[in-house]
Amino acid sequence: MDEKNASTASQDFVITRTFNAPRIKVWQAWTEREQLVRWFGPKGTTISHAALDFRPGGTFHYAMRSADGKEMWGKWVFREIDAPKKLVLVSSFSNAQGDIISAPIIDNWPLQILATTTFEEHNGKTTIILRWTPLNATEIQHQTFAKMNGSMQQGWGGTFEQLEVYLATKTTDPQKETRDEHTNSFKPAGKKSESVSRVLYQARLYVQPAIHQ
Question: What is the reported pTM?
Fold first, then answer.
C-alpha cells in the first residue's frame, strides 16, 4: 500500500458473514441511503443525520444518536466502487462539519481506516468479507487497533445480525421507515434498547465501519 505505516495483513481486522439473500439485494442495502440507515449501527442508536454522495471521491457523512440524545459523527470517503462486487472507502470519526477528528473515548485510535468490503454470491446467498486496515498510523495506534479486535468482532457481529433481520423483512418500499417525532431520527426496525454506556462503547467502533462500528 502507498499509505505510510499501513498495517500488514496480519494486523488487519477481518470479519465474514453469509446472508440468505442475493448479492444485489445485499449491495443495495449497504450502498443506498434509505436502506443503510435502517440497519447500520449498534443496537440502541438511531441515525439522526445521513448525507450520501455515492461515487468515487464522494462521501457518506452521518451521525448516530444514543438513547440519551448524545451524537457521534462519522465520515466515509469512497475510493473504489465495483458494483455489486467490491466497495473500498476510508472511514473516520468526524464532527458535524465533516472534519476528521480523533476518536471519542478511545485514545490512540487511528484517524483513518481503509475499509474493503467484498460481496460474493453462491447459490443465491451472499458472503460479505469486511477488512479494516489502519492508514498513516503510528505504532501505538496500530497496537490500539490490534487490541480492539475482539470488541470489533462483537460489534460488527451485532450489526450483521441487524442486517440479516433487515434483509429478511425488507419490503419493496424502503421509505417505510418510521421517525421519532421528537428527535426526527430514523427508527430502524428490530433495534432494541441497550444501556447508554454499552451503546456508546459500541458506537465508537461503528463510526469506523460502521458503519456502521
Answer: 0.78
